[in-house]
């Protein structure tokens, strides 16, 4: 059992005060956000609290981060609502059971992935794709919460349909609801700026409850949360059929990907600050255990939270004891404090959600991705010159138009297609010799460099394989056809790999040039390229690789 609770090994007494303070601080943030995120998932607010204790304790037992806080989150809550909505029946009981069942299936998927050591899978969701996905999801969540802020019915569908429904319903706006909701949202945002350590969401929730009770806001048309069952949740496997579980299984894979990518990013961020390592496979096991615990506690999907982890770290947490304390305080809340939330205005919860997710609308990052562009890329790739920006926008628009999971897979698909497109069209630069030092550099970037008479030097900036071999062959032939050129030298230092198709192409190219009275020479190959060239059958010309470009140029000029 030595592998349980890794962050508590060698615990020091002097850490107790900092962990306790951090735990109370995180609890003050977690309670209102868990209530709010449950509404995003389409279930009773208390379900968010049900999910937290088991998730926090089980992640502490199995996860590798000392600081990561696990609980309900906006992105996975929205995914949960979409997946369960497609599978569940019409009743709220069915929806709640299916939500808990989805948490269980996500937990099982993450556990299996961790045991199979599939932590590397997170690499297939690039940071730009995840950024675009989160921005699109945040905008869609905000669009879904705005009707509660205005006290109107709103509509369903994608982002644009929700916004249009809101615009058409604005005539029925409730003034008291707008006042309460907008006031709560403004209070939270102001406190974040002027008193960032204050639990703004908890303060807004407390004030909302007090105002609702003091002024009977429900009688003035302000919707409140209503009856909440107090006490601990029921424990056990959710009451769903095998067919329903099958319907949830496919969606659970996408939820697991998003939950793991988000949580792993947060864990690595704060591990780097505190100088310790994160085990990706152990993180999958920790996520899986947390998801199972949440689902078997009548909860919802959970994952690592960047915002609450930031609060935990800033408050001085040293170990997962802070998370265990948050779990204990949440249990106390369930036993004795749930009655207080029955008078909580829905508009306040909407304000809490919007305040939490508005920071995820990171337009600045999208603009930064758009600026990652070079003239050479623009010439060779067109729209693919900004692949990260393109993939991010594809994921964002995919979520806003086609829903959450399709949007994620659209972003992943576009990024992989762009990767294949770029690798099939590597940049091929012509090199010239710099005066004075004899080094070779790109003619495009160094105007002072000069061509060598009779010899063209090309640098292929990427691997050479079956998908780009013909394109490279065409460009080499075009360079060799210039007047006065008798040899082409390929600088292979920037070629990380070749395959057998590429070797066959290069051998054939050498024979073509020889038939025309020219030569093809290779310089500065790296290990894998050298191994493939030497072990592949073919001509002898390319099996002799020159150690430097200068040596290859001299051999071409002298005919040796």
Helix content: 55-70%
What is the ordering of alpha helices and beta strands? HHEHHHHHHHHEHHHHHHHEEEHEHEHEH
Morphology call: elongated
Counting DSSP H or I runs of 4 or more residues, the number of helices is 21
Write down the overall mean pLDDT: 87
Describe the structure.
This protein is an alpha/beta fold and about 550 residues long. The protein is about 60% helix and about 5% strand. It has 21 helices and eight strands. The strands form two sheets. It has a six-stranded mixed sheet with strand order 4-3-5-6-7-8, sandwiched between helices. Strands 1-2 form a two-stranded antiparallel ribbon. It is elongated and about 95 Å long. The mean pLDDT is about 85.
Write out key terms for the chains shown.
single chain, 560 residues, alpha/beta, six-stranded mixed β-sheet, two-stranded antiparallel sheet, 8 strands
Write the layout of secondary structure elements.
Elements: H1 16-40, H2 46-62, E1 69-71, H3 74-87, H4 92-115, H5 127-150, H6 159-169, H7 175-194, H8 200-215, H9 242-274, H10 280-296, E2 303-305, H11 306-314, H12 321-336, H13 346-357, H14 363-371, H15 375-381, H16 387-402, H17 404-424, E3 427-433, E4 440-442, E5 455-461, H18 469-480, E6 487-491, H19 500-515, E7 519-523, H20 527-535, E8 545-546, H21 549-558
Parallel strand pairs: 5-6, 6-7, 7-8
Antiparallel strand pairs: 1-2, 3-4, 3-5
